[in-house]
Specification:
154 residues; mainly alpha; Substrate Binding Domain Of Dnak, Chain:A, Domain 2; 5 helices; rod-shaped
């Protein structure tokens, strides 16, 4: 086994130090991930997320703040991971807000249909007992169409 001489020992230490410095310098700051995360949080804040998904939105904000702190400490891999998680959390908050708004809109449409239909729902979607798929029927579908008026634009 070779031993280090007095001449080669300092060179080995210097080479090791350069490798360590090179490894640290090899990871650039996650500017792209940070920009994406900031944009995702801003979009979520501009949506219904503050009202409909406040916990998810707060998680996104917290992770974005942690990512900024990791950048200040030059922990770039950690910062990149946190920024990606912040963007995902913000996207989740925005999606949950959109789902809540869509559900409210559906309920309003259902209520409007019920209000317009005499005696209940205007659309029947109950499945027949013979296993065939349900057919949507409306009161207007039971009346035949009137023939087209003659003498119109041809």
């Amino acid at each position: 086994m070779p031993t280090l001489s007095r001449k080669t020992a300092p060179m080995g230490i210097a080479a090791g130090a350069l490798l360590l410095l090179g490894a640290c310098a090899g990871t650039p700051p996650p500017d792209d991930a940070m920009a994406t995360a900031k944009l995702a949080v801003e979009r979520a804040e501009a949506s219904e997320a503050p009202q409909e998904a406040p916990l998810e939105l707060q998680q996104a904000r917290d992770k974005l703040n942690q990512a900024e702190q990791a950048i200040a400490e030059e922990e770039y891999e950690k910062a990149r991971r946190l920024a990606q998680e912040a963007a995902a959390d913000a996207g989740l908050a925005e999606a949950q807000a959109e789902r809540a708004v869509a559900e409210r809109n559906r309920q309003q449409v259902d209520s409007a249909i019920d209000a317009l239909a005499p005696g209940g729902s205007a659309v029947t979607t109950s499945a027949p007992s013979n296993g065939t798929p349900p057919a949507a029927t409306t009161p207007a579908a039971a009346t035949p169409l009137a023939p087209a008026a003659s003498g119109g634009i041809q």
